[in-house]
Amino acid sequence: MRHYSPRVVRCLRATLVSLFCSLPVPASVPPLAADDVGVLFDQSDSPGNIQQLIDDQTLFRDEKLQINAADLDALLLLPFLSVHDARAILQWRREHGLIEGPEDLARAVGDEMAARIEPFVGFGLAAAPRQPTLPLEGRWDVRWFREYPERAGITEGAYLGGNDKLYSRLRIVYGDLDVRGVLQKDTGEPQWDDFTSLSVALSNRGIMKQLVAGNYVVSTGQGLLLGQGRYLSKGVDPLGVDLRGKVLKPYSSSAEYGFMQGAGVTLGSGPFDVTLFYSDNRIDASIDEGMITRQRISGYHRTERELLHKDNVREEVAGIHVRYPVATETVEGSAGMTWMRYRYSLPLEDAGGRPGWSDAGSVDFSLRLGSTVLFGEAALEPEQEAVSWITGVGFTLAEHVGAVLAVRDYHQAYFSPFAAAFAERASDAAGEEGYYAGIEARILKNLQVGAYYDIFRFPGLGSYYGLSSTGDEAKVFVSYRQTPDLRWHLLLQHQFKEQAKRYESEHDGEYYTAVPFVTDRIRLDMIAEPAGWLTWKLRGELKSVDGRYPSGNEHSRGWLVYSQANILTGGIRLKTRYSVFETDDYDSAVYVYEDDLPRVFSLPSYYGKGESFFAVLSWQAAPGLQLSGRFGTTWYHDRDHYSSGYDERPTSSPSSLHLGCVLTF
Questions:
Q1: How far apart are CA 295 and CA 286, in angstroms?
Q2: 307 pLDDT higher than 80
Q3: Largest Cα–Cα separation, the chain
Q4: What is the separation of C-alpha 64 from the centre of its chain, rounded to a whole number of angstroms?
């Protein structure tokens, strides 16, 4: 008789329980296509500003884009929709008329892309103008989070607050007036309103296209100067190099950095659109001998020391962006120019330690010539005489086959406090060169393949190792809908990248050197919908990391398997997942996107040996009232405590409870 390991038995048992619990009730609503977007979140090794993406997705769900009335620029505001796919939608409308539903959308862009964007689009003839027929419309999100057991910083009194994390977000809309506010307190923080955010936006009033006061973000060009709206870093979408979106947007994320505070306005009259903005904000920073050595982005204010850094530096920014739309019979798009001045209350080390105002500017373009898109930006920091630039071309190789080529050269001395550039490492648009090629092909209606190859070079590997370093990365994505109820996702990755490591030898003592790391990863997802009310996901991932040290190679291996059941019936949605993982060390840690409450994401890294489980339950208790809760726990088999320092928790099985309420009116 064959004996199976207890871990495998537990995984099978959890899967059967998840399926059994969902059997009795028939379907009343269709499965959630929006879950497909979660697959994209964990395709990147460093996901970027996912919280802002989730906020924007929520807005699109509430105010769906009418796909039959949208032009190319409007379509490109949809998350993850490429120029190639947007043109396919326009082509379908020209040849077949209206896109009448999800089936037509899938015929135009393929099953996979249709599933990604379907939650955000409507199939009417035109968007209905918003009328303030009611006193107001709004949405109020409230959440409470607690960990078990609590952290050492709380039990020892180093953290000044308790074990609760609180969050409240309110959005009120009245016609073209949009008001958003956020309150948040992290675990261990003493003040219930540690972070507050307020934005007031007014749109479409004569020549004024957009006015935002309070907290907001500005994104221009390719993000070399101002890239606060870039959602995800390199590695998610093979064609996702070109940064697109609105120049000016209100800010309602819970992230406590990366935004401006003041006012901005976009004016459109004649051939130009002009955006003016000013910000006077307080930020967290580390200060050493009168110099700002780094900006602190964690947002934590739990200890006396962390509170000393809270809002301890004043940041002023003023700027102008001019956009010239181009629309002729052969060319459409825009060219832009941006100039920005900024200063801090103390000299900033990254900006050369200069007191007073600093300047930076850029020029950018995005032009479409038929099925070809040319885009680029060059940014200048005059004080350092440093120029960073990126340029690229997107084009159609054949029907349903799109490609992109891009070259970037980011000067090592360049600095912009709001850069969020396309990059392997230097999203601040400094200290990196690269050559990128990506391709995406819809081979069949139900088969989509994407791949990219990126060669990169760092003029300086780090502060401890100043010599240059090179590397490369290749990723392949395959999405296949075998049947209407069964889909497969495959990810393959190979990366060669050097890291600065401290090394000790008998003859030379301690020194820093560049250590090459070779990473190989394979991930396979199966997503089945055996019933209209049930979605079942299985994932397996293997990861291998080889570090080539001077004394010899060090090998690290890791794997993870999970089973998840999503159940949707009536006003109740249940998601349960059971995972098993084992890695040699942190080098081979596996990152996994996990479902959470509405507007919340988790992207934990699993390393060591153990198992994990979570369940998310949402209940539409009444019209306009949704209640939800999440319980999660991890059982580690190779340790008796979790984390370290003040965040250490005296357990091998840390757990958490998350409760929330969403009220719409």
A1: 6
A2: yes
A3: 82
A4: 21
Residue with tokens 């043109």: 87
Structure tokens at 243: 């940064």
d(CA 402, CA 87): 11
Q: Give how far Cα 304 sits from Cα of 160, 186, 189, 309, 312, Å.
A: 8, 15, 10, 9, 13
Provide mean pLDDT across the span 282-297.
91
How far is CA 390 from its chain centroid?
A: 21
Q: What is the CA radius of gyration of the chain?
A: 25
Smallest Cα–Cα separation from 446: which of 482, 402, 489, 491?
Answer: 482
Cα(236)–Cα(223) distance, rounded to whole angstroms? 17
Q: Bigger pLDDT: 577 or 203?
A: 577
Give Cα 226 to chain centroid, integer Å.
17
In tens, the pLDDT along 337-376 reads 999 999 999 998 888 888 889 999 999 999 988 888 999 9
DSSP 23-64: SSS--SS---GGGHHHHHHTTSSS--SHHHHHHHHHHHHHS-
First to last CA, the chain: 61
- DSSP letters, 297-365, are -S----SHHHHHTTT-EEEEEEEEEEEEEEE-SS-EEEEEEEEEEEEESS-BGGGTS--S-EEEEEEEE
Whether 184 and 195 have beta carbons less than 8 Å apart is answered as yes
pLDDT single digits (tens) 529-542? 998 899 999 999 99
Asked whether 313 and 282 are in contact (CB, 8 A), the reply is yes
User: CB-hemisphere CA count at 13 Å for 1?
Assistant: 2
578: its two tokens: 């059971």
Check pLDDT > 70 for residue 151: yes
- Residue 383: helix, strand or coil by DSSP? helix
Cβ atoms of 570 and 28 within 8 Å: the answer is: yes
pTM: 0.85
C-alpha dist (Å) from residue 583 to 311, 446, 517, 594:
39, 34, 16, 19
CA 370 – CA 218 distance, rounded (Å) = 29
Positive or negative: CA dihedral 286, 292, 293, 294: positive
Q: Is 138 exposed, middle or buried (0-12, 13-18, 19+ CB in 10 A)?
A: middle
